[in-house]
Design goal:
The complex is a heterodimer of chains A (about 250) and B (about 425). The two termini of chain A are about 25 Å apart. With about 250 residues, chain A is an alpha/beta fold. The radius of gyration of chain A is 18 Å and the shape is globular. Helices cover about 35% and strands about 30% of the residues of chain A. Chain A has one domain: 3-Layer(aba) Sandwich (Rossmann fold), CATH 3.40.50.300. Chain B has one domain. In chain B, helix 2 packs antiparallel against helix 7 and helix 8 packs across helix 9. The longest helix of chain B has 22 residues. Chain B is globular. Classes of the chains: A alpha/beta (about 250), B alpha/beta (about 425). At the A-B interface, helix 2, strand 7, helix 3 and strand 8 of A face helix 8 and helix 9 of B.
Chain lengths: ~250, ~425
């Protein structure tokens, strides 16, 4: 589904990603771990098309399409979803109204009928229940005045409604208490299917107790220095990131 | 000039006084502080002919903006057009009078208020309007009456291809403890050239609540000068909401005098300026009495090479203790070539008052744009959603849903055209 080859990304004048190679197949969950500043969030944001992240080299194929050639909204309509680390507050834009517009933009792209207000609300109510999200979030402005936990839940709620093919979760666990973490994880797990894939960016192993990955990759100084199964995350928890450098990844 | 002869003595007197005043001061120029950014030479230099009472497109223009269920009062080229008005929804507690007929018939309240709320000294164009005082419409609301039916004054101007000028005039007198909602729409044939010089006077009685909406959708080649002046009695509430999408040059002067204790006033506006258009708003709030409150929010969206001027004057007189006044002016610039001059002007002579003002000029929030795009909205859709949110705070104040829909549509049609131009 996703093939990343030698991806190099610059932010302002600094090269952050120095050649990432990664293949993600349908049905897989990949965790990207690494210390602060290793480039893991940069990786997620570059894939989502954030204009502040300049790709200087490499290639990304998404279902055979050149992802880097697509605008952020084209990527979204093609099924790439980014759960933001810091969801943006947008005063005056109603959460439900926005989500309906986003869903219908995607449905139009997929060639299915747009949902009317009633069918949309029906769908939304189901997803709200699934994620234990309070109804009132719907009628508030997007993320405005939301608590940290509400913002993250709202991201996963958007994901559940938009049903993306590839989801990028950028430190979705940061700032969540254990109950919220469980709820968010259940939301993600409910969406796992042989047709979908997830890239979960996280600093801590904790999230991976709930969202169990198929593969774990360790990023250091802009490169993937180790890849392994779930046990790699457990090892990192025990030993920390010290020593996980390019030099330490000889085997 | 047959009409001049027919008018009663008091009308002729006020007209002549204003005429003398205008002859003294003439058209303003950019050396005058109040007109520094708005050059009205194109109006002064053009030879606009005084319009006749009718023109071919008037009826279809009125039909196009008609609000279902509202009382529709048509003013065509400054003349009250009973035939194009719709008075079928006339509620109890409202009296309507054409100014010409009303003056002739001695309509109660007309001589007392007409051209009395406004001082011709304050504004040359108001003097020019009064010097042509001939017709228009007056709305009287009986004391204690709460009018549910919206009153929609539709002001159309045009000369069937000839550049004309008109001086529409409106008087609203709301009796004590009455309630009424009045909208004034300004329109003309698309891209026709004319000069509309409007005046509205509003008297808000003690404890009365008046909402006054100004919906400026003139032709994009038109010159639109409008003066609104309101006097608010004790515990009265006056809310002015101005929505501007039209005109090549607009100058709005809105002046509100809080004349009784405990009066409250809202003065909001939102405007869209694009191409090479100039929209100028001067507001003036006179806190003359204690315990009055005022809230003012003006928002502008500017694209292309548009210019906007906002001047917000608040005077708190020495007796106006416990005044609470708040003013906000915000503008979004969608292009590098659009400009705004924003000038809050606070003159405070009382010591126990709360006055705040703030001005912010910025661009669209790119992080918000990216967030919306990352969920699948195109850049234009994302932008429109943010602009809608920006303008929404003011648009929501318009409590006539059918009219609000019309205005929102005008806003976003104009924006879409602007994108097409710049793409």
């Amino acid at each position: 589904m996703l093939q990343v080859t030698n991806l190099k990304v610059r932010v302002e004048d600094r090269e952050i990603l120095k050649g990432i190679n990664l293949t993600v197949n349908k049905g897989e969950v990949h965790a990207i771990m690494g210390p602060n500043g290793s480039g893991k969030s940069t990786f997620a944001r570059a894939l989502s098309g954030h204009p502040g992240y300049e790709v200087t080299d490499g290639q990304v194929l998404y279902n055979g399409q050149d992802l880097l050639d697509m605008d952020p909204d084209e990527r979204a309509r093609a099924g790439v979803f980014m759960a933001f680390q810091y969801p943006v507050e947008i005063p005056g834009v109603n959460n439900a109204y926005f989500l309906k517009a986003a869903l219908n933009a995607k449905r139009k792209h997929d060639g299915v009928d747009e949902l009317d207000a009633m069918d949309f609300m029906k769908l939304v109510k189901e997803k709200l229940k699934l994620l234990h999200v309070d109804d009132s979030l719907l009628q508030r402005s997007v993320n405005e005045g939301f608590s940290g936990g509400e913002k993250k839940r709202n991201e996963i709620f958007h994901m559940a409604v938009l049903e993306p093919t590839l989801s990028l979760l950028d430190e979705t666990d940061s700032g969540l208490d254990i109950d919220a973490l469980k709820v968010v994880s259940e939301g993600v797990n409910a969406m796992r299917s042989p047709e979908r894939a997830f890239i979960v960016v996280t600093h801590y192993q904790r999230l991976l107790n709930y969202i169990v990955p198929d593969f774990v990759h360790v990023l250091s100084e802009g490169r993937i220095v180790r890849s392994g199964g779930r046990e790699l995350a457990l090892e990192l928890e025990e030993k920390g990131y010290a020593g996980q450098t390019a030099a330490g990844a000889r085997q | 000039m047959e009409t001049l002869v027919q008018a009663p003595a008091w009308v002729r007197e006020r007209r002549e006084q204003a005429s003398r005043r205008f002859a003294e001061v003439g058209f303003p120029n950019t050396r005058q502080e109040d007109w520094r950014f708005t050059n009205v030479a194109p109006i002064a230099d053009a030879k606009f002919a005084l319009a006749n009472g009718a023109f071919a497109q008037a009826a279809s223009l009125i039909a196009g903006v008609k609000v279902p269920g509202a009382l529709t009062l048509a003013i065509v080229n400054g003349r009250f057009a009973a035939g194009l008005s719709d008075l079928s929804a006339m509620p109890k507690g409202v009296r309507i009078a054409g100014l010409r007929d009303g003056a002739r018939d001695g309509t109660d309240g007309l001589e007392q208020h007409l051209a009395k709320v406004f001082s011709i000294d304050t504004h040359p164009f108001a003097a020019l309007n009064t010097s042509h005082l001939d017709d228009g419409v007056a709305v009287f609301v009986t004391s204690g009456a709460a009018i549910e039916t919206p009153i929609h004054i539709v002001t159309v101007t045009g000369g069937d291809g000839k550049p004309v000028t008109a001086h529409p005039r409106v008087l609203v007198v709301a009796g004590a403890n009455s309630q009424v909602r009045i909208a004034q729409t300004f329109i003309g044939a698309a891209d026709s050239v004319y000069f509309n010089n409007a005046v509205a006077e509003v008297v808000v009685g003690e404890g009365a609540i008046v909402e006054f909406y100004t919906d400026q959708r003139e032709s994009l080649q038109a010159y639109h000068i409008a003066n609104i002046q309101a006097h608010v009695g004790a515990k009265g509430v006056f809310a002015s909401h101005a929505f501007s999408t039209g005109a090549k040059i607009q100058r709005h002067d809105i002046g509100i005098g809080l004349k009784g204790e405990g009066a409250d006033c809202t003065m909001n506006g939102v405007y869209l300026a694009d191409r090479e258009r100039l929209l100028d708003t001067h507001t003036s709030l006179d806190h003359a009495m204690p315990h009055c409150t005022s809230h003012e929010i003006y928002k502008g969206i500017l694209a292309g090479k548009a210019k906007a001027v906002f001047n917000g004057r608040i005077i708190v007189r020495i007796d106006a203790q416990k005044t609470d006044a708040k003013q906000t002016n915000r503008a979004l610039l969608l292009s590098d070539e659009a400009t705004i001059n924003s000038n809050p002007q606070l003159e405070i002579f009382a010591d126990d008052v709360k006055c705040t003002h703030g001005a912010a000029v910025g661009q669209l929030d790119e992080e918000a744009m990216f967030y919306l795009q990352a969920r699948g909205l195109t850049r234009v859709e994302a932008r429109d959603m943010l602009l809608h949110a920006f303008a929404g705070e003011v648009l929501e104040g318009l409590k006539i849903p059918a009219l609000r829909e019309q205005i929102e549509k005008t806003f976003f049609t104009a924006l879409a055209q602007d994108v097409a131009v710049s793409a």
